[in-house]
Amino acid sequence: MDAKELLRRYATGERDFGAVDLSEVNLHDADLRGATLRKAVLIGVDLSGANLIDVNLNGVVLRQSNLREACLSGAKLSGTDLSEVDLTKADLSGANLWRATLRQAILDQTNLSRANLHEANLIRAALTAANLIGANLNAANLSEADLSTADLSRVHGIGSKLHRTILCGANLERADFSNAVLQEADLSRANLSAINLGGANLSQAHLNGVNLTGANLSCANLIDTKLMLAEMRGARLDWAELTRANLTEADLSWASLREANLSAAILHQTVLTEVDLSFAILRGADLSNAKLNLGSLKETNLNWAILPQGTVRSN
Length: 315
Hints:
Blueprint: H1 3-11, E1 305-306, E2 312-313
Antiparallel strand pairs: 1-2
């Protein structure tokens, strides 16, 4: 079916175009709101600027298509193949993308607020400056995706995969990424205030200069993580694994580190005012020039730790 035939039938009131082949068809700026294209083949189609509000595209193959600035608000895209699709500045607010494939898709400045991306595949997708406020990213795979300066505030990302994902300058305020995998992710200068990262894997991640005020990192894996100059006032790090973490000049005022493992951690010039370090392990940690009350270390394991006065505690 060509574009002319599709639009003629749509104009007469027909809405069901399931299983049609529209590959390479030019539908630029077309108005197809409310249409059903379930299981249609749309490989390489041009739908840039199209009105696709509430369209049913469940199971559709849209690989390598052009949907720049298209309006897909409330669209049904469950299981849809959007690999390598250009969705720059498109409106996908409230869309259902459950188990959709967006591998290497271009979603720069795209509106995905309140979208359902549960179990979606976003590996190596481009999402710079995208709006994901309140989106559902539970169990989604965003490994190696670029989310620089994106807004992920209040996102639900429980159990999601963000291995080597770029989140520089992103806003994740009050998001829930508990039990998520963020190994080697770059979160430099990101806003993570009041985020839930309980049980998350952040080993070898870059968190230099991040805002983790009031964040929950209980039981998190922060082995070899870089947290230099991080703002962590009031953060909860109980039972967290911080072996060899670099917390140089980080502010941990009023944080809770009960039973946390800080073996060989670098805490040079770190602010530890009013910190709860009950039963924490600081074996071999570097606390040189750290700001803390030494009385708070009485219930900690300081074997071979370097204390603020430059002394080494050997037992």
